[in-house]
Amino acid sequence: MTFKLPDLPYEEDALEPHVSARTLHYHHGKHHKAYVDKLNKAVEGTAYAGLKLEDVIARSHGTTHTNVYNNAAQAWNHAFLWQSMSPEGGGSPKGPLKEALDRQFGDLERFANDFKLAATGQFGSGWAWLVLDKGELKVVSTANADCPIANNQKPLLTLDVWEHAYYLDFQNDRGAYVDGFLQHLINWEFASANYDAKRMAA
Ligand code: FE2
């Protein structure tokens, strides 16, 4: 089985002006594609060939196969990222996820503050996440390619804070990019569906 680049769930210009068509064109069509292509090359003829992407991440994590792990994690993270954003995003979560967020963070504003701090505070390249960790909602950041599923956390949504995700649109102003995501793009329906599925499975 070879890994495939998933299609974007919307048109390249659907997230404008918060993420430009130019950014999505390069981010999906060049960066994400390169991770998938490098992963296919890295696993060819190894024990990783034929495994599911999640299993490649789990089995390569903490080994000397950093090339496999990094490209597998980046392939997974980006597929998850496209779904974490929506042209109809922003607003508030509903249902059980809203209740859990209010319990954990007090209110949506405090969640947004914590998420922005994690996203802007991540030194260098990485990711900000809302995860379920032993049944508890947490905002975390990871460095470079690192994926929370390697640490037994269950991702609900993510934002890429590598410069390639925002530099064409915001140059060095990562905070403005994060604000645009939180106010206009964050896909609460996707996060809620993940929350419901993980809760059932727990
Ligand atoms: Fe990226």
Word description of this protein:
The protein has 2 domains: 21-84, Helix Hairpins; 95-201, minor pseudopilin epsh fold. The longest helix is centred in the N-terminal third of the chain and has 23 residues, at 21-43. With 202 residues, the protein is mainly α. The radius of gyration is 16 Å and the shape is globular. It has helices at residues 21-43, 53-60, 66-84, 95-105, 108-121, 167-170, 174-185, 188-201; strands spanning 126-133, 136-143, 154-160. A hairpin with a 2-residue loop joins strand 1 (126-133) and strand 2 (136-143). A 3-stranded antiparallel sheet has the order 2-1-3.
Overall pLDDT: 96
How far apart are the termini? 29 Å
Low-confidence stretches: none
CATH topology annotation of the largest domain = minor pseudopilin epsh fold
Strand content: 5-15%
Q: What is the SS-derived class?
A: mainly alpha
Number of strands: 3
What small molecules accompany the polymer chains?
A: fe (ii) ion
Quick one: CATH superfamily of the largest domain? Answer: Iron/manganese superoxide dismutase, C-terminal domain
Taking Cα atoms only, what radius of gyration do you get, to the nearest Å?
16 Å
CATH architecture group name of the largest domain: 3-Layer(bab) Sandwich
Q: What is the general shape?
A: globular
Return the CATH class of the largest domain: Alpha Beta
Discrete helix count:
8
Largest sheet: 3 strands, antiparallel
The strand order across the widest sheet is: 2-1-3
